[in-house]
């Protein structure tokens, strides 16, 4: 499994005039086991799931270079078109065209509110909470956290109660994921100084709910003893507790736990089927990275199945050291629970961006109008930009580029509230274009 964290592709030059951070260290993960690859994957995937099936849509985005200067913004002088019913299976390997293109995994369409990598991370997680008689879930995130909203909605759908600790102050007007979190869960706004110590904050709030408290790592380890058990397998949830006692499960920010990995491995298995992307065609998988859990899960899935896939992640929310520690934690937890020794050989470079900058809203607008695909200015736009670049660089007959859409598009509403000037300028631009066309 190889992760290459790209820095400063040409189409991102405007972004890097404002924010850039680079570091480099070396990642490859080698898992050794007496199990065959197929047996190892089957063991991981032998469980109940939140999603009834792992199916997702795959579209093909064609990239055209314009001869005129119609577009001269963040995406450069290119336009896009969307083939929503591309020929897959054997045609993925055999298809050749002089026009650059990339495939996009439309996980943003999985659920109206719980989609993208949030749905994949919760795929194995929530049934595990149910199997061990959990009643309440505590997690945290930013004010517009798609993760927090996904946990709230998914818990409500399954009869669990979600307690969400959101960083900062309550906005005057609730929008986007902040609004969804309030509607489906119990929200507490936490000062940034307290939020900075996330583990202590989550633990203290879980204790305040007056019930037995369990961490996901304990649940994960217990689940490997008996995947289908509905009885508690650890001391914090004893059979002698009253039936109305709360059993509180703590989920890290962004569901950055090893229990989130099976859902992503399940997605890799689905995509590698012969009638979808297949097992033989070299692929460059592009994904944006918040906690890095999605990239790790996709990479492990490709490694275990022996696929010629390279996972390329765009770092967007942490330092290179933070991603390295998260990667080591996730892999060691997964392999420890399955009794699989690991060898880590690290190697990657990366760039880091936190805020919306000039031109990104217009780029999202162009993509939406030309393809019908909605991306947000911070996360999925970065993955789209890199997929565009790689598709243009890849030689004819080479690896196919595949972007995994990680959802999060409701965050656009929160960004419109936070960055009024960008969206107001965009609105005026649209109004001016319409006026000129009418006249």
TrEMBL record:
Gene3D superfamilies: 3.40.50.1100. Keywords: Pyridoxal phosphate. The keyword Glycoprotein does not apply. GO terms for molecular function: D-cysteine desulfhydrase activity. Its cofactor is pyridoxal 5'-phosphate. PANTHER family: 1-AMINOCYCLOPROPANE-1-CARBOXYLATE DEAMINASE-RELATED (PTHR43780), D-CYSTEINE DESULFHYDRASE 2, MITOCHONDRIAL (PTHR43780:SF7). Belongs to the ACC deaminase/D-cysteine desulfhydrase family. This is Tryptophan synthase beta chain-like PALP domain-containing protein.
């Amino acid at each position: 499994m190889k992760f290459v964290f790209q820095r400063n592709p040409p189409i991102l030059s405007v972004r890097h005039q404002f924010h850039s951070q680079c570091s480099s260290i070396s990642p490859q993960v080698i898992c050794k086991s007496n199990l065959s690859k197929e047996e190892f994957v089957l063991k991981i995937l032998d469980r109940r799931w939140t999603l009834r099936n792992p199916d997702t849509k795959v579209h093909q985005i064609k990239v055209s270079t314009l001869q005129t200067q119609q577009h001269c913004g963040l995406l450069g002088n290119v336009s896009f078109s969307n083939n929503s019913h591309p020929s897959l299976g054997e045609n993925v390997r055999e298809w050749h065209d002089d026009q650059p293109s990339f495939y996009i995994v439309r996980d943003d369409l999985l659920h109206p509110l719980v989609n993208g990598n949030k749905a994949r991370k919760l795929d194995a997680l929530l049934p595990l909470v149910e199997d061990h008689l959990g009643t309440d879930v505590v997690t945290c995130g930013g004010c517009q956290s798609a993760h927090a909203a996904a946990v709230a909605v998914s818990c409500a759908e399954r009869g669990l109660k979600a307690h969400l600790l959101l960083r900062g102050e309550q906005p005057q007007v609730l929008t986007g994921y902040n609004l969804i979190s309030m509607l489906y869960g119990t929200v507490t706004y936490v000062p940034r100084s307290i939020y900075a110590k996330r583990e202590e904050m989550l633990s203290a709030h879980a204790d305040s709910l007056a019930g037995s408290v369990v961490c996901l790592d304990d649940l994960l380890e217990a689940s490997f003893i008996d995947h289908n058990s509905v009885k508690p397998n650890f001391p914090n949830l004893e059979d002698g507790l009253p039936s109305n006692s709360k059993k509180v499960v703590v989920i890290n920010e962004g569901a950055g736990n090893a229990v989130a990995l099976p859902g992503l491995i399940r997605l890799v298995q689905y995509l590698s089927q012969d009638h979808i992307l297949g097992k033989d065609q070299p692929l460059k998988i592009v994904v944006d990275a918040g906690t890095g859990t999605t990239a790790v899960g996709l990479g492990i899935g490709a490694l275990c199945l022996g696929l010629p896939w390279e996972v390329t992640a765009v770092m967007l929310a942490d330092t290179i050291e933070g991603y390295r520690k998260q990667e080591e934690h996730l892999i060691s937890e997964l392999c420890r629970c399955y009794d699989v020794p690991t060898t880590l050989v690290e190697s990657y470079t990366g760039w880091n961006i936190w805020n919306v900058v000039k031109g990104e809203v217009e780029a999202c607008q162009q993509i939406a109008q030309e393809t019908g695909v909605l991306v947000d200015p911070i996360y999925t736009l970065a993955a789209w930009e890199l997929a565009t670049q790689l598709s243009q660089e890849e030689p004819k007959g080479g690896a196919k580029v595949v972007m995994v859409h990680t959802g999060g598009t409701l965050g656009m509403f929160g960004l419109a509230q936070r960055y009024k000037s960008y969206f107001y300028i965009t609105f005026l631009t649209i109004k001016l274009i319409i006026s000129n066309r009418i006249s």
